[in-house]
């Protein structure tokens, strides 16, 4: 065993115990040190009976990767990469992941694995005053689960509509002999998304009726989650064998198919084209840090919950680097897929633009409205033979001098349309797939991939709710199956809010404001608690006792300074941005058949504030509750010792200096020396106690 260093413990911090190790925890099983099998035997008194465990390392990796790799890797990272400097953004992302993301990821993995409880138990074990951090994580997980499952419902709706030819979003519907006006003004995919799938209102103020199709799909999504979580990780991990691996199969299929498309290389070049000047933009740093933060799933409590099922000697340091690397490579793979397909879509639309302009130019020339010297040298009578670059060169030189409505067919402008969030998945990418031969097959494959990506993340999010609460409350632990079903029913009922015609606007509100600020605050508290209150050196000592080797000292400085300052900076930048710029949302205007940004009304801002306050309320409440409990105990202890004479019974569990000293001996790890000065103080307290028993007047 490694040689332990001294455990420094101040007088005012008696609530903080060293993390448990296999040597001192009386409920620890030998099988933990032998592998992943046999995890179902009883733990110590602080854990529920028969706590589950992973059957193999593969199961654990599938769970962690499945949770961290989600929809954001597919529709958020590519957009940020394209908008913020391409290759330069990727370098910035990697830098922030190395100095902030991975150290914090390692911190949560180590804490969960050492204490073997959910987020509530972990922070309560370190100090009862920190228990509110775990409750805040549970609240945020619940908020995220509510709207995240709605996105799965949308994926189920599109998956069900993919099994028909032609796809319903390939062409505009007709009313009699006329094309529907709203679809004619926009595109078939935009019309299907906003009118057929969502039947959306013009603003968040217009509530509208419930959408029966989305309600049915939402019920199906919650049913799948409930069945997957029915028996905890034992059942969810069986689903993850498919849901965590299948998306990679689909991404590689799309990559191969996408690279064979005309315009794919143009799309990839636009995405990765480096713009080094973006490093001077503070907002780009904020967006990169936020993406690292959410990509790894920090603060949710799910990382802690999953790692708590590991054996104590599992190499969580290696796991932190492995999972983070897989997450980053998945984001890059998804970006290649997205922009190869979007490049094909953009080039096809740009060439259609060229053909339309050439027809307009021919009509103008036949009408003798165009000077012969302005006419292009290429064969404009055959638009298919005109290269996009050649047309743009001619247009930039003579386009403004030619009468008519000629436009610049900009490839990059076409690629920027609807490349973020739901706009990417349900409009831009959907339109691109409709252009492919065998479009129903590719469409079904894509939405099945989205469904599985979301399911793996939902399992982790639900585990971030269920594991801490069942660890904390024995009644819930004894009725975990009923509690799981009850949670899913409550989630479905509250989720009906998002199935209204204005439900998409509430999804955007929850996505932007219910999780971002609270999670950043949670991670700030986590980092500060471990590195400063508990002590980074003590935490590294505990990791050394657990793993058998000591992590590099650089983690001490990363946790204490770099990570903490980075999270505080991100918190400040996010808060300032919220107050400087009034929050807006993307709405669909039925009359103009176009998207527009609208400001949230006053009542919506109040809802946002309540969501943030409610998510953060457990932290100060937990602190106040712990302080009041300490004062109550001190008052009760003072009342007991107020009498002049006292009968001491060895059968009572009364607290004496000897009891405290013996408890300290139990809590200290074997092989770790206790400070001699502290022992002397304890002995003096014992002598004073014995003297006061026999000579009370002295």
Explained architecture:
The chain is an all-alpha fold and 698 residues long. The protein is 66% helix and 2% strand. A hairpin with a 2-residue loop joins β1 (174-175) and β2 (178-179). The longest helix has 51 residues, at 316-366. It is elongated, with a radius of gyration of 30 Å. The two termini are 49 Å apart. 44% of the residues are buried. Mean pLDDT is 79; it is low at 1-15, 21-50, 644-675 and 693-698.
Summarize the structure.
The protein is built from 29 helices and four strands. It is an all-alpha fold.
Please mark out the parts with pLDDT under 50 across 5 or more consecutive residues, or reply none. 1-15, 21-50, 644-675, 693-698
Shape: elongated
Sheet with the most strands: spatial strand order: 1-2
Strand content: under 5%
The radius of gyration over CA amounts to 30 Å
Task: Offer a few descriptive terms.
698 residues; mainly alpha; two-stranded antiparallel ribbon; two-stranded antiparallel sheet; 29 helices; 4 strands; elongated; disordered C terminus
Which helices and strands, and how do they pair?
Elements: H1 31-34, H2 57-68, H3 71-75, H4 77-83, H5 87-115, H6 119-126, H7 131-161, E1 174-175, E2 178-179, H8 181-185, H9 188-197, H10 212-228, H11 233-243, H12 246-259, H13 264-272, H14 282-296, H15 302-307, H16 316-366, H17 388-398, H18 411-415, H19 421-434, H20 439-472, H21 474-478, H22 480-495, H23 503-514, H24 516-547, H25 554-580, E3 584-589, E4 594-599, H26 602-616, H27 618-640, H28 657-667, H29 676-694
Antiparallel strand pairs: 1-2, 3-4
Helix pairs in contact: 2-11, 2-16, 2-20, 4-16, 5-14, 5-16, 5-24, 5-25, 6-7, 7-10, 7-20, 7-22, 7-23, 7-24, 7-27, 9-19, 10-22, 11-20, 12-16, 12-20, 13-16, 14-25, 16-19, 23-26, 24-25, 24-26
